[in-house]
Design a protein that fits this description.
With 110 residues, the protein is mostly helical. The protein has helices at residues 12-19, 23-31, 49-63, 69-108; strands spanning 10-11, 38-39, 45-47. The chain folds into two domains: 1-67, Multidrug-efflux Transporter Regulator, Chain: A, Domain 2 (Orthogonal Bundle); 68-110. It has a three-stranded antiparallel sheet.
């Protein structure tokens, strides 16, 4: 069975061991809004592969670059904004292509 990168399948204990942090660190990341795992009906946190990659990136910023929590929050917001803008550019390019190809198709039958 395979899971997509966004499928929440990893419990907090597994993620903590994999990344090498305490479970409380992951709870703090959630409280600060850096990573928000999905919850089961009983409240168990489940992380996706994408969540794990994000946590690993946060750990790299803290451990390697020495960035503090405030810096991590700023970096996270900036990367989210960049991703949003990149998506907007993709959508605008598609709209431009649609508009450019639309009129030529209409004049072909004239």
């Amino acid at each position: 069975m395979t899971f997509g990168r966004d499928e929440p399948v990893f419990a907090i204990g597994i993620v903590a061991r994999r990344i090498g942090v305490h479970q409380q660190t992951l709870r703090n990341y959630e409280r600060w809004g850096l990573v928000v795992p999905r919850r089961s009906g009983g409240g168990t946190r489940y992380y996706s592969m994408r969540d794990i990659e994000r946590i690993e990136k946060i750990r790299e910023w803290i451990d390697v670059l020495g960035i503090n929590r405030a810096g991590v929050e700023v970096m996270t917001r900036l990367l989210k904004r960049i991703a949003d803008l990149e998506q907007e550019v993709r959508e605008l390019k598609l709209e431009l292509i649609r508009r450019q190809t639309g009129p030529s198709q209409l004049t072909d039958g004239d």
